[in-house]
Amino acid sequence: MTRTRRRGTVAAALATALAVLFAGCSSEAAGSGGNASPAALDAALKKGGTITYWSWTPSGKEQAAEFEKEYPKVKVEYANVGTGEDHYTAVQNAIKAGRGGPDVAQIEYRALPQFALQGSLVDLTGYGFDKVKADYTASTWESVHVRDGIYGLPQDSGPMAMFYNKEVFTRYGIEVPKTWDDYVAAARKLHAADPTRYIASDAGDAGFTTSLIWQAGGRPFRTDGDREVTINLRDKGTKKWTAIWNQLIEGRLVTNITGWTDEWYRALGDGTIATVVAGAWMPGILMESVQAAAGKWAVAPIPTYDGRPTTAEHGGSTQSVLKQSDNPDLAAAFVRWLNHDQRSIGIFLDSGGFPATTADLESSQFKEFSAPYFGGQKINEVLTTAATQVSAGWEYLPYQLYAETIFSDTAGQAYVNNADLNTGLRAWQDALVKYGRQQGFTVNEG
């Protein structure tokens, strides 16, 4: 199956699942914990029982095993049912069927509003989760909220930074760009000196696009209540980003090698691609999959528009309790342990995760980690600073997963044709407005 056909199949599956789920939404869409209380968590752990946990996190299985050691009366049935759309389709199918789903599911921040507004998740506020706000970064804490509810505790974060091949920069006399104008100038200089090299690769990725719009100050998605949505992919911040990125796309200054492919990894290793703008999880990817370039890469703050440090999140997830759980108290206790207990967080960090907890981000041991792959640079000094500079107020659509499956067929065509991104985003907006109205949302256009 080709990449295009795969996306079409996934989009169709998600559309079908969402149509059924949205049709059942009511004015009480946000899930409730019923008689939940902080005391119920400890009581549930004392009583014991069995819960299921679906996650793709590399540390998930080990964390579940450690939890069972600490609470021997509890059995955690861990399963990895897939990543990305495969995972969410499985969760949605279970929700639609009313059975067969996990008690606890990993859910990315981008997908959380969709499940919460459907009424499929337990609001964990009653369990006292609101009392630990200060333990997490502002951006990730904001990400686990939907309306007035809390639907998990932040597991990780992905504040964006710029990873660059310092060997390539040195060879071609390129200074580390501090602004996006500098970045475009660096792209031109590099490609003019060697047409086989590019400042970056961008084949059109919805998550990357929305994160860069976020950093530029764009706020294209707004949800009021459960059913009213505003979409404006022509707002000031979005146009600020397209004004920069159009110069790269239309000028053919970035290559369109698809990310996460063997070709992409090779291009990162041989210097074809000189920078990657990504979340703070990127060092683990480079160290594991681009070993040929060990010692050549470094990290710097993401370029800005006006010199004032501002970034956005790219990635990150939480764990949520499904309303169909037969034991929500025990499931919530597991979520609390996963993302608030230091033993669990330690396992996650050892697997290469980037924390959302302020204590870990502020610890001297974490900040002063010297990475041999990055030539001994203390990369976490850059990344932990970025975690404090994430622009506030971002929202995702309540059907964000579907939105991302149709990105390549709408906005993505601008990348294919090296054309105006504004036109591509307009096509994406038109499709999102149409779909939202078909699902019963009141959709306004900005």
Description:
- The chain is of the alpha/beta class.
- It has 2 domains: 202 residues, Periplasmic binding protein-like II (D-Maltodextrin-Binding Protein, domain 2, 3-Layer(aba) Sandwich); 206 residues, 3-Layer(aba) Sandwich (D-Maltodextrin-Binding Protein, domain 2), CATH 3.40.190.10.
- It has a 4-stranded mixed β-sheet, sandwiched between helices. It has a 3-stranded antiparallel β-sheet with strand order 9-6-10. The protein has a 3-stranded mixed β-sheet with strand order 7-8-12, with helices on one face.
- A hairpin with a 2-residue loop joins strand 4 and strand 5.
- Helix 1 packs parallel to helix 4 and helix 3 runs antiparallel to helix 14.
- It is globular and about 70 Å long.
- It starts with a helix and ends with a strand.
Keywords:
446 residues; alpha/beta; D-Maltodextrin-Binding Protein, domain 2; 2 domains; three-stranded antiparallel sheet; disordered N terminus
